[in-house]
Fold this sequence. Notes:
0% of the residues lie in helices and 58% in strands.
Amino acid sequence: QVQLAESGGGLVQAGGSLRLSCAASGSIFSINLMGWYRQAPGKQRELVATITYGGSTNYADSAKGRFTISRDNPKNVDLQMNSLKPEDTAVYFCHAKLMPIGLGYVSDYWGQGTQVTVSA
């Protein structure tokens, strides 16, 4: 069974930093892409940043210049968030496009989410 476990959320003042981490575990054959999404109260879930197996990154406009996504091994992904703003307050979800062992195709997996709250 595949699981994505997030850590690193919390409460921070505006202008501060947080680092989110996500670790994939279970019977995984390959991971094509990992990333972070967020969902604020009353809003739809939105892309924050993604990184492919090859290291190519993609950022939402709101994250460019402030957030950095990285992977130090194929099953982990981190999100360094600097210069945080109150509008960054949301539940942040780890996401992966991966192929479990024995499944034969790539599917989407999500973590349970971690709360990030930025106070003014």
